């Protein structure tokens, strides 16, 4: 049997996903009992953009047409809450697995989709919503089940960290560094949420749901982006041996979840001090294992495809095992 994918979006992430399926087809088949993975259909918004698609895929601007292509899994690589939420919901209700990289949609609707997936007995992968292919989600959900997470802090936005690093190390202007982040595919097409802290906020809310089973009241979370940082702030911090980093923190305090997102000047003693460029990093403070640091690329086509493909293999290995148990 072939695993047939319905791909929503063909921008940085969607195209990266499709190309990685091609480049890693043999490896995927080895992991999936010989089953090939094929992009059956691709949904785009603008049909007039000049670009090349995989030969065998149907390309459409109509979700219903994509859906008619007998697909097993929907990959959400589009932007924003809607129509992504409605598409994912419909896919799950129709018995399709879903994998999403869309943190804005998932921060708000993740809980609903998780419940629905459980009810409909399908899988929902969201590794790439948070720190792209660096496996934060699976570490928290599967490798730290006995440990209690007392506090979580992280650099969760690749674009912000890239800009801060370029401004400090190479003295480039904010605007030039942002343009470079766009050219490299780290920044969103509209980078407002990258630099105003909102992107890191969405990721932190996804982590909060996972660790504590709930999110703080969104209106009570202090969110400040790197758009308040000027080069003299960076130089001042540097003079004192510090680096400004955009830090998202969440912890359980006084019976509730407390979160904040802001630029902070870190000394070299802090585990996130050395995380530069588009790298992201998190420190997970656990009661048994102690503080655990995980770092890796947080933005870009191939790392995001990596997280989504790990989700895909995890889902279909599980599905295959279930099928075998039934026989
Ligand atoms: N870039 C990155 O490093 C990462 C991005 N993400 C998330 O992944 C998702 C995709 O990001 P990215 O690839 O960078 O974004 P892009 O802007 O590069 O691509 C978005 C794609 O989605 C399509 N699209 C947007 N809205 C619709 C719609 N309503 N109907 C159909 N198609 C639509 C666009 O179509 P068209 O091309 O026709 O305009 C485009 O192909 C986002 O949610 C982002 O937050 C997550 C991790 C990392
Ligand atoms: N624009 C985002 C992409 C990944 O989520 C970032 O810069 O981190």
Automatic annotation (TrEMBL):
Domain Homoserine dehydrogenase catalytic: 135-313
EC code(s) of this entry: 1.1.1.3
Catalysed conversion reaction: L-homoserine + NADP(+) = L-aspartate 4-semialdehyde + NADPH + H(+)
Residue ranges constituting the Aspartate/homoserine dehydrogenase NAD-binding domain according to the UniProt record: 9-124
InterPro entries (UniProt xref): Asp/hSer_DH_NAD-bd, HDH_cat, HDH_CS, HDH_short, NAD(P)-bd_dom_sf
Keywords, sorted A to Z: Amino-acid biosynthesis, Methionine biosynthesis, NADP, Oxidoreductase, Threonine biosynthesis
Top-tier EC class: oxidoreductase
Pathway: Amino-acid biosynthesis; L-methionine biosynthesis via de novo pathway; L-homoserine from L-aspartate: step 3/3; Amino-acid biosynthesis; L-threonine biosynthesis; L-threonine from L-aspartate: step 3/5
Family indicated by similarity: Belongs to the homoserine dehydrogenase family.
Protein name per the record: Homoserine dehydrogenase
Species name: Pontibacillus chungwhensis
């Amino acid at each position: 049997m072939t695993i047939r994918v319905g791909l929503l979006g063909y921008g940085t992430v969607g195209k990266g996903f499709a190309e990685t399926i091609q480049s890693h087809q043999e490896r995927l088949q080895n992991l999936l009992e010989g089953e090939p993975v094929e992009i059956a259909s691709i949904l785009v918004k603008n049909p007039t953009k000049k670009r090349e698609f995989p030969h065998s895929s149907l390309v459409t601007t109509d979700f219903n047409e994509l859906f008619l292509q007998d697909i097993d899994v929907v990959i959400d690589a589009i932007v924003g809450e809607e129509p992504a939420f409605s598409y994912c919901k419909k896919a799950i209700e129709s018995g399709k697995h879903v994998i999403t990289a869309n943190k804005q949609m998932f921060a708000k609707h993740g809980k609903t989709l998780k419940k629905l997936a459980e009810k409909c007995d399908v899988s929902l992968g969201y590794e790439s919503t948070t720190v792209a292919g660096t496996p934060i989600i699976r570490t928290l959900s599967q490798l730290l089940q006995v440990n209690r997470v007392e506090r979580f802090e992280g650099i969760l936005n690749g674009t912000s960290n890239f800009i801060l690093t370029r401004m400090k190390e190479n003295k480039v202007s904010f605007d030039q560094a942002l343009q470079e982040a766009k050219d490299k595919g780290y920044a969103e097409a509209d980078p407002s949420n990258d630099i105003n802290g909102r992107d890191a906020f969405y990721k932190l809310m996804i982590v909060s749901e996972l660790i504590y089973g709930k999110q703080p009241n969104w209106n009570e979370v202090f969110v400040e982006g790197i758009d308040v940082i000027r080069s003299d702030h960076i130089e001042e911090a540097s003079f004192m041996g510090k680096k400004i980093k955009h830090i998202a923190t969440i912890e359980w305090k006084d019976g509730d979840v407390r979160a904040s997102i802001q630029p902070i000047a870190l000394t070299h003693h802090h585990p996130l001090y050395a995380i530069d460029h588009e790298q992201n990093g998190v420190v997970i403070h656990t009661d048994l294992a102690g503080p655990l640091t995980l770092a890796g690329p947080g933005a870009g086509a191939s790392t995001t495809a990596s997280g989504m493909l790990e989700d895909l293999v995890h889902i279909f290995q599980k599905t295959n095992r279930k099928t075998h148990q039934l026989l």
